[in-house]
Amino acid sequence: MTILLSTLNARYTHASLGLRYLLANLGELQAETSILEFVIGAKTADLVERILARKPRIVGFGVYIWNVEETAKLVAMLKRVAPEVTVVLGGPEVSHETAEQQIVKEADYVVTGWGDKTFPKLCAQILNGPQPLMKIHAGEQPPMEQIRLPYDLYSADDIAHRTIYVEASRGCPFKCEFCLSSLDKTAWPFPLDAFLEQMESLYQRGARLFKFVDRTFNLNVKTSQRILQFFLEKLQANPHDPVYAHFELVPDHLPDALKDSIAQFPAGALQFEIGIQSFNPEVQALVSRRQNNEKAADNIRWLHQHSHAHLHIDLIAGLPGEDVDSFARGFDHLVSLGPHEIQFGILKRLRGTPIIRHTGPYKMAYDPNPPYTILATDRIDFPTMQRLVRFARYWDLVANSGRFGNTVKRLLGDQPFANFMAFSDWMYTKTDATHRIALDRLATLVRQWLEERGMPASEAAELLASDYAGRIDSHAATPKQKAAAPERQVRHLAA
Ligand code: SF4
């Protein structure tokens, strides 16, 4: 095998779309190229052994925020054992600030940005000469119709067992400074007919779980409607073998035509991930996020009341200008709109993002190690940030898990943020942990907390039992929906 394309996915179920794009666009080199995917957490030496067993001349690695540390070790070991193998890096984590990265020093070449055309050209040069002089190659962005779509490269096994990632467009026209997509000039759509043909082929091959990675699915309403129509027809033709689709929406843009399409979907067929990030207008202005808060709230309310879509809304703590009180107000407002899940994320400083301009003025201290999480700002000190991190973790375990649907409503009461923060602080004193808490123990702790807050023991037990008995309200995600949920903040911000 001449070329091996590899990456470390966060989970086995995440099939790499990036590697499949590279393979699809390799032209005559495609026949001598294969993909070898790993999952983070494996032993580096084992990975090196498996790579070398394929006898590659070139190995291309996809490098992301979730795998950069392990990939750096892998590249270093690979180059020690087999220095004759040429290592080419690509992906968002090595597309910016390349000079200071150890992994870049260890590698032979780096392709920054889009690799669809530049990676094949670089490989041809490495194989046939003359050898490329430069280490860093800026990815060329071709017209979208020149990029070969990769969907026939999903294997039968991928379709049966993994999430199928697809994209109808790349890029984003918005400029939120914490997000890598803010560096894009606009959004570029793929030719829609060709894209839908590929979706049809995936569907005919058995794909039923489609995750769109488009940054803003609802930018062009006509395109969004055609894509929704595609899925609606599948659902109507085959209601007993339903298809499920996940999209990212901008919250303040939901024209009636789109609402009409969304309202036709039955339960369990649609999931929307909606970024709010902050409801604080001053914070929004600081990070250049244009958002009409009133419209966004109206649209979330409408989706909650008039559609069956599962709503997953993102908030980010630790943005410049945000203190705990203003974050708490945004959180409470969001809870009142009734989303099914709130992703409580902690800000990460992604390489290349313009948010770095606030580091000095707002005393933003970030962890120097991936995923570069914010540790403190001028408004939130380190101990308080730690409390917010624990809040996020317990929120996932108790609220987002859907296991305590009835109980959570009582636990939150009329001051959701303050009440859950008190619960979170108490949980930490009781467990000294935020991981590896068995479900039974978690339920016992939740019950104890309710009792400490004055709920009669019998009522608390009954409330917990109502969740345990499976009578969780309709907001709880189905197992299929859970399977579709990626590490959203990181994917959303990094991909
Ligand atoms: S956060 Fe969302 S809307 Fe803002 S730039 Fe990134 S992808 Fe675009």
Strand content: 15-25%
The CATH H-level superfamily of the largest domain is: tm_1862 like domain
- The domain tally reads 3
**Apparent shape:** globular
CATH class of the largest domain: Alpha Beta
Number of helices: 19
What's the pLDDT, averaged over the residues?
93
Short overview:
It is built from 19 helices and 16 strands.
What descriptive keywords fit this protein?
495 residues; alpha/beta; Rossmann fold; pyruvate-formate lyase- activating enzyme; 3 domains; six-stranded parallel β-sheet; 19 helices; 16 strands; globular; binds iron/sulfur cluster; iron; S-adenosyl-L-methionine; DUF4080 domain-containing protein
How would you portray this structure in words?
It is a single chain. This protein has 495 residues and is an alpha/beta fold. It has 3 domains: 3-144, Rossmann fold (3-Layer(aba) Sandwich); 149-380, Alpha-Beta Horseshoe (pyruvate-formate lyase- activating enzyme), CATH 3.80.30; 402-495, no CATH class. Helices cover 42% and strands 16% of the residues. The chain has a 6-stranded parallel beta sheet, with helices on both faces. A 6-stranded parallel beta sheet has the order 7-10-11-12-13-14. The protein has a two-stranded antiparallel sheet with strand order 8-9. Strand 10, helix 8 and strand 11 (244-249) form a beta-alpha-beta unit. Helix 2 (44-53) packs across helix 3. The longest helix is centred in the C-terminal third of the chain and has 19 residues, at 382-400. The radius of gyration is 23 Å and the shape is globular. The two termini are 28 Å apart. Residues 172, 174, 176, 179, 181-182, 215-216, 250, 275 line the site of iron/sulfur cluster (SF4). Residues 476-495 are annotated as: Disordered. Residues 158-392 form the Radical SAM core domain. It comes from Massilia terrae. Residues 1-133 form the B12-binding domain. Keywords: Iron, Iron-sulfur, Metal-binding, S-adenosyl-L-methionine.
